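Board notes (copied after class):
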Amino acid sequence: METAGLRFDSAGGSVYYPPVALLAEALSPYDSTLSALGQFGAAFIVVKATKR
């Protein structure tokens, strides 16, 4: 970011897994195994920066 003339301010994120809480909880121990089959969720990262 610095090479682009931006100063890091903060970062945050969120993970989306199946919208059914019971299903998400039941599948969480198998997440690494299931990830080999394809993507079942998504992760989002947000970075806030100030232009110098």
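Comment from the instructor: The first helix runs from residue 21 to 27. The longest strand covers residues 6-16.
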